[in-house]
Amino acid sequence: MEAMRPAPAGQPRLATMFGLDEHTVGYLFVDAVSEPNVAADGRPSKRFDLRLEEVSGEGASSIARLHPAAIVFEREVKDLFGVAFKDMLDDRPIVLHENWPEGVHPLRKDFLPGDHVPEADRQYPFIEGEGEGLFEIPVGPVHAGVIEPGHFRFTSVGEHVLNLETRLFYKHRGLEKLAEGQDVARCLSLVERVAGDESVSNSWAYALALEEIAAIEVSEQAEFIRQYLQELERVISHLNDLVGMATDVAFGVGSMLAASMREEALRMAKALTGSRYMMGSICPGGVDLDIGSSRSALGDIAQKMSEIKQGITEFRNLMFNNISVMDRLESTGALPSVHARRLGVVGPPARACGIEYDVRFAFIEKIHRSRRLRQILSDLDLAQEQDGDCLARTRVRIKEVLGSIKLMDRLASELPSGASYRELPSTLPANKSAIGITEAPRGETIVYVRIDETGSVIDRFHIRTPSRVNWPALPLAFEGDIVADFPLVNKSFNLSYAGNDL
Amino acid sequence: MDNEKDPIFRKIVQNLAKRPKPMEKDEIAEGSVGEFEIVRALTHSIGPSLRNAAKIREVDSGSCGACELEIAALSYPQYDMERFGFDLVASPRHADLFFVTGPVTRNMKQATKLSVEAAPVPRFVVAVGDCACGKGPFVHSYATLGGVEKLLDVDLKVFGCPPEPQTILRALMKFLGY
Fold first, then answer.
1. Phi, psi at residue A94, to the nearest 5°?
2. Which of B8, B105, B143 comes nearest A318 by C-beta?
3. pLDDT score at A175
4. Radius of gyration of chain B from Cα atoms?
5. Is the pLDDT assigned to residue A290 strictly greater than 70?
6. Which chain A positions have a beta carbon within 8 Å of B105's beta carbon?
């Protein structure tokens, strides 16, 4: 497929694409690989490039051939705004399913939240294969375990999968539309629930955007606490993946070991913030945490983290010394790094292919002003592997858990004193917009916020979670594998359905 | 192969000795974390049997994922609901009751309904989490129905965003008559 050839050298990565209204499409290009340098005219070269393109009467041009990541975004913009793209590689509806009528585009400003939309009965054409001995296996949206809904359609010959097509957006809740017209605080509670287990990271990216809009600087203490909370979120999230991976290779001992560590970490999160998923802890302006009364919780967490560090080492030894586990993990679900780069894959799956990208290092200047904190983060090792298979992704996550625990220790012991919250002004600059970025446990998360013309509510909110760009890589990683390995490969990517569907 | 000498077996035995103590049944049943509401009291003659052997099917109708994680945690060592006879099953055909999360998105309406209707009667529906109970920020959206009651008869509501595992378990036990 021409779109999957290696990108021309120097081509920036399309990180996200979104409609602003039916006349404007925003494209965000992020180039983390090159050093920020100064061009001949003295201005810094762009590593973070948001381009707003006006859509003409005949529509916009598709950029999917140059940037395959655009395939899903163009379908989304077409569904939600009615923008026509010329020569789309895939022009099927994506967000709105068969129940939604043609011609109704809910993110247009003239679509009002209370509008009644009748039930429709459209058809959705899946990719079909023809040939003797080919089977078409549909799975989902409801799955056999306690797992989010999504549909997978396999075309297989015997056990081997020739093609996997994923279909998502079963969980589409209309989140970006719900955010419009909300004040900053009410929008925050939506952002925390984009995906419940990424509450800290998503609210942090949102807060960063608001703080840039309001031109306020959070305190050094707030910066430390935010990083600390995110590292705790990373430990909890990665432990969940390890539970799932061990379960899917039928290694109950390993999965229960990881599970009991995760439960202890969740209880620590509750002790510190009042919420197991740390909801309500990060807000624009800083953190909503009385660190004075939380100091003893920090000590308890340090103790628990050191137990988890031992437990993880034990888990690693159990898993990697077990022949049947290694047989399942090794070379399964190998994602070629050329595909990962073309699609803009982020997070542990990207690092497992040798892509050296972690927002905590690459964009540290956009996230933290504290010199001390920048120094601490620069001491961290980037967790990396080369093979891009399930084993590599497992190794990356284990390394990251250990790295996060080490980082949490340093952050807690060097925690500065001071206020943890600075209030935002009640009126924000009219029509101002900004972007926030962070390294969530699953990878790079990007938030775009624009304030309305009165300066009091959100006019447009867009979030691009790591799951959105990583989902398209799953079929490519799964090529040539057997049907029975699908749950394992899926878990090894750790893709949020809610984070994709919004 | 002598089990006693196998390093993995020895590790398992060591871990068993120092595992976290799971919460006791009374501790969960008489706890006070979180809230729930019994919408339709369980009067069916099958009630007493379910108290010790309830098969549960989970269906996500559009949650943010946190409720799923808390339901999954019920199988973790600290809660271990299998001790109480509660088991998660893979098929609605095997289910006595449903844990339904999420506000029921338009895109999940059909699958949620068909899943529950595939279970033989008597069957009971538990709405888990604020979204499923018709509360929370997603109920008034173009994309959702606004709660499980808009689609199905609900017997038990467990509130919370997300509800903690012990709340879910306590609500279930009280519904079943502890």
1. -130, -45
2. B8
3. 97
4. 18
5. yes
6. 170-173
First to last CA, chain A: 29
d(CA A124, CA A232): 41
Q: In the Cβ-directed half-sphere of B4, how many Cα atoms lie within 13 Å?
A: 0
| CB contact B161 to A (< 8 Å) | yes
The rounded radius of gyration (Å) of the Cα atoms in chain A is 22
A146–B68: do the CB atoms touch at under 8 Å? yes
pLDDT at A40 over 60: no
Tell me the ipTM for this assembly.
0.94
Q: How far apart are CA A117 and CA A99, in angstroms?
A: 10
Put simply, whether A172 touches B (Cβ < 8 Å) is: yes
Alpha helix ranges (H) inside A194-336: 199-214, 220-248, 252-273, 291-320, 323-329
- With a cut of 90, say whether residue A295 has pLDDT above it: no
Within 19-38 of B, beta carbons closer than 8 Å to A belong to: 19-20
Determine the average pLDDT of the residues in A52-68: 91
| CB contact at 8 A, B58 and B25 | no
The angle formed by the CA atoms of residues A68, A74 and A76, to the nearest 5 degrees, is 125
Strand pairing of B97-101 and B156-158? unpaired
Q: Which helix (H) or strand (E) holds B31?
A: none
Sequence-distant (≥ 6) Cβ neighbours of residue B14 within 8 angstroms: none
Cα–Cα distance between A133 and A127 in angstroms, integer? 17
CA gap A141, A170 in Å, rounded: 7
Q: Which of A170, A233, A248 to mutate to test the interface with B (most CBs of B within 10 A)?
A: A170
Residues with Cβ within 8 Å of B33's Cβ and at least 6 positions away in sequence, in order, are: B164, B166, B167, B170
Give this prediction's pTM. Answer: 0.95
Residues of B in contact with A97 (CB under 8 A): 106-107
Q: List, as one string, the DSSP characters of A144-201.
A: SSS----EEEEEEETTEEEEEEEE--TT---HHHHHTT--HHHHHHHHTTSSGGGHHH
Set of chain A residues whose Cβ sits within 8 Å of the Cβ of B91 = 144
Give Cα separations from A162 to A167, A329, A480, A484, A485 (angstroms). Answer: 17, 20, 7, 14, 14
Which residues of chain A from 75 to 114 reach within 8 Å of chain B, CB to CB?
97, 99-100, 106, 111, 113-114
pLDDT in the model for residue A418: 84
pLDDT tens-digit series, residues B64-91: 999 999 999 999 999 999 999 999 999 9
Strand order in the sheet with B124-128: B36-38, B156-158, B124-128, B97-101, B54-60, B86-88
Instruction: Read off the pLDDT of residues A441-486 as tens digits, 9 standing for 90 and up.
Output: 999 999 999 999 999 999 999 999 999 999 999 999 998 899 999 9
Nearest CA in chain B to A179: B137
Three-state SS string across A209-237, please? HHHHHHCCCCCHHHHHHHHHHHHHHHHHH
A175–B138: do the CB atoms touch at under 8 Å?
Answer: yes
Which is it for the CA torsion A319, A321, A322, A326, positive or negative?
positive
Q: Which residues of B touch A498 (CB under 8 A)?
A: 62-65
Residue with tokens 């009651």: B149
Pairwise CB contact (< 8 Å): A194 & B78: no
| B66 interfacial to chain A (CB closer than 8 Å) | yes
Chain B: nearest CA to A385, how far in angstroms?
27
Q: For testing the chain A interface, which of B61, B91, B106 should be mutated: the one with the most A CBs within 10 Å?
A: B106
Tell me whether residues A144 and B91 touch, CB distance under 8 A.
yes
Q: What is the pLDDT of residues A388-440, one digit of tens each?
A: 999 999 999 999 999 999 999 999 999 998 888 889 998 999 999 999 999 99
